Amino acid sequence: MIVDETAFEELVRMHRGELHVHCYRMLGSILDAEDLVQETFLRAWRARTTFQEMASPRTWLYRIATNTCLTALARRPARMLPEDLRARPPDREVAWLEPYPDHLLDVVADSAPGPEAVYDQREATELAFIAALQHLPSRQRAVLLMRDVVGLTVAEVAEQLETSREAVSSTHQRARAALQQRLRRARPPALSATDRRLLERYVAAWESGDLDALVSLLAEDVVLSMPPMPEWFAGRATVQGFFTWAWSPEGPGPFRLVPSGANGRPAFGLYGRAPGGQGYTPQAIQVLTLQGGRIARLHGFVRPDLFGVFRLPARL
User: How far apart are CA 312 and CA 156, in angstroms?
Assistant: First the structure.
């Protein structure tokens, strides 16, 4: 059992980062993840006298975190990206997926998963991966994450969820098949010198208001979304039409971009002209997917409340 407060604080220090990102993967929300990881450690502290030394503290904490998330998911709507609304039943409530800052992922990037993991930490935090997860039933989601990301054995997952090994194997098989239908697995390569020049040109286009220069950087089949706006735009011409309207003199420009990183991808904090023209205020967290020397996906999360989480300035 764990009765010493110092020993418990060390457990929190060692495992908080990976439990935080685990809760994010389960819920699709960084703010929900923060609440649930706090609830996890509160439950763990209350149950510390029941912890058996022969068990792994990490596995014990994952059991508490996973069941805390499953309880939360039972009363919360699924989180999606706007382009996922195509597959959403019309009567189903929806909330929006949130980005995850790379500086938090860096804390757990080098943690050693179990021997059965098939995804690494960054690959399993890609926006496409997180979005695909949200379409799985919550129990399938939990089993897939614990098996393929955390790397727990079938026996460990069965014990965590208080079910049989056969049930875990069957659920895992269904979850993998459903995920593969939505996700074309491709580990993102490290940014090349060409990619970095592309991002420099992207920033220059935004800050100079050069729409033609921006459009030249987009893939032909580019997708643009801006949660919580439900609309999304597909194709270079369609995206150009939207920006022609958005970058009009009546719009929030001129703009400034501050580099960041989210979900293992290049990201920027987008700032628009402040009221009265004095300085710039937060507008959106942009997350980019680069492919073939072009911008293939541009997700602009219109969430000024997340700028603090991303360690971005509150004003320029």
Answer: 40
